[in-house]
Amino acid sequence: MTQLISSAEIYAPTFTVYRADSGEAVPKNEITGIEIDEDLENPGMFRIYFNEALDPKTQRFKWLDAESIFPGTMLVTSFGYASPRKESRITGRIRALSPGFFYRGSSNAYR
After folding, report:
1. Which of 61, 73, 75, 101 has its Cα between 20 and 30 A from that of 5?
2. Cα separation of 8 and 6, whole Å?
3. pTM value?
4. What is d(CA 65, CA 61) in angstroms, rounded to the nearest whole number?
């Protein structure tokens, strides 16, 4: 049976980010952006921007202080357009944590 695709699915990318070792998915509402750089002459890379928040009780950051996301963690990013299943996948280890703080909230880039 053919599945109909809405106009939002054609123009808006779909994505999933999860840990390669455990399969634990990162909730989509915790990701504020993804950049994927695929170059024929250089290794591919991706950056994931998380919605960072400070817990006022513990004084710990949600992602920067998380034990599940740290340099060396293998992440898988699946993405696609106009398809119920994601067509492309890029896998890589977190190389660096680059916290960025804004006037209202913060965002972290993981490369």
Report:
1. 75
2. 5
3. 0.69
4. 5
